[in-house]
């Protein structure tokens, strides 16, 4: 039972990355458009003639802002499609279409049920419960939960019926053609049920969000601690998403509209030119001090602690991982380099420091948000550009510098005190377990004249137990997520020799951490497997 729950959560975490990957592009459009056309920015720099209302540049930036906003406004629909697509076993394109059909049918049914059988005034008593969704007015705002629910239902129907055989008279509707049909009818029923059940769920979520807010800094600490602690399990997307996108992260009125979800509140305030509420930003701003300053300092400590004969190799690895953390906020290459050396260094030191970073930013009333991860790009777009009066970004730099020193000295102390085998400190002549992509290519080029990409894909497949051991291969932002037939066949040293920062095996689920280059690695594996099948 526990394994099945983990399988489901792992799958959800993977599928969530599809719509979440849209957020940086949408956020940049919205951030640039809203920041440069905001009254505070225009008046601060005296740019009324260039960026003021009615100018060509203002109009163009407004288009960017509106275009980015439509992604955030329809994110639940994208989650429905992504979940249907990601959970489906085969014919995934049919599942994606069916999920979109199911989402619209659910809302049409639910809206009509409310109009005919419910009291809209009573429903309006719960803040954020009633709203406008994909063109349906006075309906229940289920947020991303609505998309996830219908996506899972459609995926279940798809996996059960996509090969169904009907009688000859109805044979045209057999197989995949049956899936959108059964999904549509089921979604109508789901909409009716949700019209009566979701108000209770919505009220419960709103209550829980208020309870978290009432905990104050303790609640912020728990959020930051759990968020960072779940990263090794790959379940952090499942945890933080409700805070970002539902009433669990707060409900606020912005420019006359009720908005729920911390990230939605933040971007609505940014677009409206209102100062960012630290209560919404507390779920984001704590990332910047340790991602931009802390992790690079920890990487420097690990480099200095490395053996002299290994420092050259470790330097390249740490510089690459540090730049990735600074600019993009993707930290797993660094995190896993010390997680596998010492779980205490990760859970007992880093996770605690990270949680306190969230608390400090909350206490200092910092209003810097983000789209995907807390790197320098997000910090510039959503902290510096909107202006100090909008986001109060300066404390991030002050605390970040302090965090840099804290991470450096704490890591140096624990590495030396307990002789932790961080990269470059392995016993004997054993090679360091982490490699850069170029290191791997150079190694393969010296061994043979074959295609380096194919050789890497081949080694990864062999490390996963061979082609016959693979059930499903997918990826999220930083790691391959693989379902295998037998987890004991996984060769972790071989996988690490391909450049993996770490390997996690939980029953039949395997996660291989490569960092932001994982998408290309996954594509190369798919092409290699297809080529092998043709031979």
Automatic annotation (TrEMBL):
It comes from the Bacteria. This is PTS glucose transporter subunit IIB. It is found in: Cell membrane. It is a multi-pass membrane protein. It comes from Halolactibacillus halophilus. GO terms for molecular function: kinase activity; protein-N(PI)-phosphohistidine-sugar phosphotransferase activity; protein-phosphocysteine-sugar phosphotransferase activity. Residues 454-535 form the PTS EIIB type-1 domain. Keywords: Cell membrane, Kinase, Membrane, Phosphotransferase system, Sugar transport, Transferase, Transmembrane, Transmembrane helix, Transport. The keyword Transmembrane applies. The lineage of its organism: Bacteria, Bacillati, Bacillota, Bacilli, Bacillales.
